[in-house]
Amino acid sequence: MLGLLPGLRIGEILALKVSDLDLENRFFNVQRNVYRGHIQNTPKTPAGDRWVPIASVLLSVLQRWIQVRPNGSDWLFPSEARTAQYERNLLRREVRPLCIDSE
Predict the structure, then answer these.
(1) For 63-77, how does the pLDDT look when each residue is reduced to its tens digit (9 = 90+)?
(2) Which of 56, 70, 50, 58 is nearest to 9 (CA)?
(3) Of the CATH numbers 1.10.443.10, 1.10.3980.10, 3.20.20.80, 1.10.10.10, which one belongs to the domain with range 10-101?
(4) DSSP string, 32-99
(5) How far apart are CA 32 and CA 84, in angstroms?
(6) Main-chain dihedrals φ then ψ at residue 40, nearest 5 degrees
(7) This prediction's pTM
(8) Coil, strand or helix: which one is 9?
(9) Please, which pLDDT band fits residue 11 given cuts at 50, 70 and 90?
(10) Which of 25, 27, 38, 103 is the most exposed place for a label (fewest CB within 10 A)?
């Protein structure tokens, strides 16, 4: 949903921290990027550092996710080690199996 509704890149999604969310005002701050497991403290382009509005449908999903996500990490979507996800591992472990199961 974060890729489709606000149009975030996968590296921007994986680099989101809970503290980047302002659920009360319905915005989140995109300010870093993850590329091949390395955290870059700037987005891909200078224009990438931005506040993005949260759509109503996304707000409720994020609120639920924060309640059930693994504890002990600042990352919104932490790895099992509670670090930022590595995008290739995410694709291999989560996305591709879903695609294969739906064939």
Answers:
(1) 999 988 887 789 998
(2) 50
(3) 1.10.443.10
(4) -EEETTEEESS-SSGGG-EEEEPPHHHHHHHHHHHHHSPSS-SBSSB-TTSSBPPHHHHIIIIIHHHH
(5) 11
(6) -110, 125
(7) 0.80
(8) coil
(9) confident
(10) 103
